[in-house]
Every structure is written in C-alpha cells, then in structure tokens.
C-alpha cells in the first residue's frame, strides 16, 4: 500500500470501496485477483491519460490567455500613439475580447470535464454489470437447449434411408407424421405443406444433412409462432412415443423440431438484449468523444 502522496488516482476510500464492491459482485470463480488487478491498472491508466490531456489543455489555455493579455496591452499602446488607427484598433479589440471569451469558456469546460469523467466511469460500471447479467442469461438458456439440439441432430443422422423411403411410399400418412413434417417444412421456409410437398422434400438428395446443418438463426418470429401454434394444437403428434409408433424416422424429427423451436425462442429473447447492449456501448463511446475533443484555440 502506498502513501497518500504516492496515489496517482484521486477518489479516496469511496473509489476503493467501489472497486471492492465491483469485485464482490462477480460470480465466484469467474474473477481472479489477477483479472481484478488488471482491471484496476487499466482504470488507473485511463485515468492518468485523461488527467494528463486535461492538464495539457489547461496549460495551453493559460498560455493563450497570456498571449491575449499581451495583445490587449499592445492595442492600448497603439491606440495612444495613433488615433487615426482607432477603427482598426477597435476591430482588434473586439477580436481579442471574442477570443478571450472563447478561451474562458474553454477553461470552464476543461474544469467541468472532471464531472464528465465521473459520469463516464459510472456508465461503464453499469454497462459491465448489464453485460454480466446478459452473459448469465444467455449461457443458462443455451446450456439447456444446445445438448437437445446436438442429440436431435445425431438422431436425425441415424435415420436410415429406408425409413424415409417408407414414409414417402405412404398414400395416406398418419396424422403424427404429417404434423411433424409440416413443422420441419415450415422451419425450412417451405410454406406448401401438402403431402406431395412433404414427399418431394424427403426425396431430395442430402435431405438429412440439410436438416442436421439447419441454423435456427434463419427462423423468423412469424415462422416460430406458426410452428409453436402447431405444436400446441397437435401436442400428441410430437410426443416421442406417439411419433415413434407412427414411424421410426418420425421420432428423431419430432425431437429436432422441439429443440429448434426452443432455440429459436431464446434467440428472439437475445436480440433485444443485444440492442440494449449496443445502446450502452454507443453512449460510452460518445462520452469518451466529448471528454477528449480538443478545445478550439485561434
């Protein structure tokens, strides 16, 4: 621990307490002393850089004031020596007064930037908390669904071609098979859910790979709602036992539909969170731009 004179960052016990509170809010096992020290050092580095920039600007402004003062004195001497130049001197005086006013305003702004720095720090802390909350929500939801997705993909991959051929050969498929294939086609963006369209889809070369490699990010809110309504109305068709009873190939497809529906629903929830995160990041970037914009000195 260093003495008060050795501390390059002001803020006292309140700042130290804030650091400790941020560390305590981190989930156990996710924040090590090393990462916490790195965080403190990064904050210290940013603080020093901002403080140095403000100090340099303040010095430049003071130098500008001195030059303007000298200019005013020169104007006064010229006025006493050359009355004929009174008009020109008046213009110069007006310019000097205008510049002095601008310098004074800039000096006041430089002083106010300390408050801007505090606001930026507060916004950054809130952003970090929100990001951690988002991370927990996303990880918890995805951790629950991703194994189901993987399991469903493996089950689809294990479907024998003979089983698909058997389904295509049916003239009047059981209701469970029709309902499951309707959900599959909707996910694939195929709105024609007639039995002929279903048979055509199953006859495609590489149809299993297409299903296995399906990306739930492609699912629009409208499609998700349609599949969700279908599953609620025909819940029995998607029951593993009923699906397997209808066809050996139907059960894996039913599991695939259910898993992707859950995954798509999570993705819809993530989108607003990402939007809020972007807004916070834009706010911080804007605040940094304001506090680091150079003053105008003519």
Structure description:
By secondary structure, this protein is mostly helical. The protein folds into two domains: 123 residues; 130 residues, Histone Acetyltransferase, Chain A (Up-down Bundle). The protein is built from ten helices and no strands. The protein is elongated, with a radius of gyration of 34 Å. 15% of the residues are buried. It comes from Plectus sambesii. One of its GO terms (molecular function) is ATP binding. This is Dynein heavy chain coiled coil stalk domain-containing protein.
Write the layout of secondary structure elements.
Elements: H1 12-25, H2 33-81, H3 86-157, H4 161-168, H5 175-187, H6 195-202, H7 207-212, H8 221-233, H9 240-246, H10 250-292
What's a concise summary of this model?
The chain is mainly alpha-helical and 298 residues long. The chain is 78% helix and 0% strand.
